[in-house]
TrEMBL record:
One of its GO terms (biological process) is DNA-templated transcription termination. SMART domains: Mterf. The keyword Transit peptide applies. InterPro entries: MTERF, MTERF_sf. Gene3D superfamilies: Transcription termination factor 3, mitochondrial. Pfam families: mTERF. Keywords: Transcription, Transcription regulation, Transcription termination, Transit peptide. Belongs to the mTERF family. This is Mitochondrial transcription termination factor family protein.
């Protein structure tokens, strides 16, 4: 049971807007609160208050006792608990995570000061990320809060801007796959962009492909994509059809080379003309387990 001192710290009498979770059913029962979201808000505030309260103030020791008592070394467990509670509180209040998600994320990131995470959030907001985008990004990759904003994150954000990615689309792209902000710009992303640009010819098509499959900037394109394009060229598939497949269905042409070659052979056996756009659409239709199941049902009928 909470002590009086602990209770007073959690629920100051002057802050009448904050209630304990124990009081919420009674408030709801007496029809003082009707909005479930408001109840959830109170719960989150209770959780934040609890996380911030690691050390309850203790009465001062008598001076004689204090001088005679040996000094104790800092308690590592208590320090770790304090750091964890601060991190959880920050993830809830500043990043928009639910208490459950904040606890999970706190297992992967710890900080005692808001200086670095605040600078990261400021940079992300400046580049158009909404609170929802930030919550998704932090939930998937909380360690980004400790990244160097100027050296690690800013160059990648500026790279996306330089190729024409709008602020509206940038948030959805990197929040869907925050790994984009963790990979090497010089060794991974720029080489992939240059290769894609050589095939798709325009930045607009590159952006369209990235929006559909963000890991097109993360994979080694020489491993599967380049050999798969070579397979299509062996059959004299027009460049326009290759562009169509890579722009709108990049996951189909980026599958493992042996699987892609098998799909192409199957489409050829079905009698599709490699010179027509229906050929690459058929390749997409039988690529992946989900598409193959749909194709099998349609083809049987």
């Amino acid at each position: 049971m909470f002590s009086v001192l602990l209770y007073c710290k959690l629920f100051p009498f002057k802050k009448l807007s904050v209630y304990s979770t124990a009081s919420l059913p009674f408030l709801h029962k007496d029809r003082l609160i009707f909005n479930p979201n408001l109840i959830e808000c109170y719960k989150n505030q209770f959780f934040i208050n609890f996380c911030n309260l690691v050390d309850v103030g203790l009465p001062e020791l008598d001076s004689r006792t204090a001088t005679s008592a040996p000094k104790k070394k800092p308690n590592f467990a208590k320090k770790l608990a304090k750091e964890s509670s601060y991190t959880i509180s920050y993830l809830i209040s500043s990043c928009g995570l639910s208490p459950e998600k904040a606890i999970s994320a706190s297992e992967k990131v710890h900080f005692e000061s808001p200086e670095r995470p605040n600078s990261v959030l400021t940079l992300l907001k400046k580049h158009g990320l909404s609170r929802t985008h930030i919550a998704n990004l932090v939930r998937k990759r909380p360690s980004l809060l400790l990244s160097n904003p100027e050296k690690t994150l800013l160059p990648k954000l500026e790279f996306f801007k330089s190729i024409g990615v709008s602020k509206a689309h940038l948030g959805s792209i990197i929040s869907r796959d925050p790994t984009l902000l963790a990979r090497s710009l010089e060794n991974q992303m720029i080489p992939n962009y240059n290769y894609l640009k050589s095939v798709l010819l325009t930045d607009e098509r590159v952006i369209a492909a990235v929006k559909r499959t963000s890991w097109i900037f993360l994979e080694d394109l020489t491993k599967n994509l380049a050999p798969n394009i070579a397979v299509l060229k062996e059959l004299n598939v027009p460049q326009s059809c290759i562009i169509l497949l890579l722009t709108h269905f990049p996951e189909a042409i980026m599958q493992k080379s042996d699987e892609f070659r098998a799909s192409v052979s199957e489409v050829v056996e079905m009698g599709f003309n490699p010179l027509r756009s229906l050929f690459v659409l058929a390749v997409h239709a039988i690529s992946g387990k989900g598409n193959k199941m749909i194709w099998a049902r349609c083809y049987e009928t």
